[in-house]
Amino acid sequence: MTEAYFLESVVVVDDADDDFAYEAVDVIDSDDDALLHDEDLAAATRAAQNGYRSTAPSVRQSPTDHATADQAQAVAGAALTRKPEVIDDFICNFLNRMGMRRTLEVFQTEWYELESKGLIDRAAIGAVPDVYSANVELDQERKALTAQVAKEQKETQMTRATWEKLTQERNHHRMHHRRVEQEKQLLIKQLKQMRKLQLEYEPTLEQLKAKHQAALQEKDRKGRIIMRLKEQLERTKAALAQMKEAAERAGQPLPDAVLDADQDRATRRKPRSARAVRTSSAKARSSTPRRPAGSGYAISGGAGPLVNDRDLFALPELGNPHVGKSYEQAGPAGFSSAASLPAHEDSIAGLAMHPSHPVAAAVSDDGKWSLWTLETNELIMSGAGHAAWVGACAFSPRGSHLATGSGDTTIKLWDVLHYQCTSTLADHTQAVWGVDFHCSGDALVSCSLDGTTRLWDLARSLAVATLRGHVNSVNSVKFEPYASALATGSADHTVSLWDPRTHLCTHTFFGHETSVARVAYSRDGTKLASADSDGMVKVWDTRAQAELHSVLTCSPDTPYAANDLVFDASGNTLAIATEDGFVRIFDMAQAALVDALQHDDAVNAVAFDADNKTMVSAGADAALHVWSF
Fold first, then answer.
1. Is the pLDDT of residue 384 over 50?
2. Tell me, what CATH number does 428's domain have?
């Protein structure tokens, strides 16, 4: 098969008719044939770098050619920058590289024809984008952005580390600021207390001076008594000597019993201890009726001699008789109601049991006190004398006297054997919440709403000391059995132990979150119980000074106050009187509430008798409830 070629007839027009000035075209040597085949910017650049110059002598160079040569030299010496190609150059180069010469000629002919006619708008067509250059620029931009991101991340990490360091320093300084603020508040509080104590120093010093003067006077008085006794002894000896001489002159010797009477008494009679002397003198003074101010009773008598405060709290030589003894636990099989006695017209606020007989004393908001025998459940006696409600009572160790504390700020001492008021103590400035006797019977302690605890010498009806340390009302006070120590419970949520001989606080128990309403010792003195107004009861070990048990007597959602509590003789059962109308029984061995005895109203007081056979409770229903077990 043969190829067929078709030719198109073209009419050549005379060039002289178009008024165009034609010039001679340089003939390119064969050495530069590469320029024909590689007619692009890269080839022109290589030619410029190789120092290409046109050397044909017959070729005339126009000013434009000189400018082109100068531009080529400038390009050869400058940095090269690849620019996007125009669209026609791009197509021509492409057709040339592909060897499509006829297509190239046809394209150029038609393209230049259109361009000569002004039908091509190069601005609208634009240039062919250089993808490589664009990719390079984008890659450079990416690298720059990546470096910038890395730098920003590093700066961010440094900033975060600085921020965390500053946060730690801020927390550190904030913690120290809070600590300093707390210490400041504590120092301010202590400063106020010191200022308050400073204001009390002057009257305290005056009181100490008065005591010192009284002691000096007592010393002088005793010295004078001793001198008189010595003088009397000398006179007696002189009289005996005269009698002996007279008898010898008369020839009748004096009997030995008369001569040695004083010596026999001195050798045969053992000297009495200070305790016995004070007890006998106290008995002698108590047998003489006295009339306190405003008591309303026909009592008279003196105050008696001064007694050392330490002697008031002297301990028995045999110590606590309950230590080491074993008692039967109260209520192991449960409690049963034995009697209910309507005792008063108003709520009963306090109870006290006689130390040796089944007798209960009750005090009431009606301002009266009463004594009831538990054997026959009968009223023995009742009394009145306070100007307000009576909230506390206590029997003396011998059971002959009853002390009552009242809202009229006074304490009255009643002789229940002779049915009379023997003393009225009125140093408190606000209501008296609690009273208790020391085991000696010569001293009494009281606590008051005025925030103080006072120690009283009953022989002189005088307050010998005021214990200060609580910052709120002192609600309860109890002497440790057969010991020189006492415990107080206060509205400042603390329980404190005191030495009445030095008037100093020896320890403070913390743990209550509300006002402490009552404290109570076990008979052996090893345990101390406290109750607060939220129903929380805590049992403390007085020897180790640590908490033994903690029990909530009511629901946390509906708190009821624990008004009173008392140990049985064994110290293993704790009876708790609560505001919700129950007497709850706490077993130490089980560390749990084991029973609940119901009243018709709030229970304010509870007590065990001396024989540990009966329990008595009383409250807002104004009745005494007797329980057997």
1. yes
2. 2.130.10.10
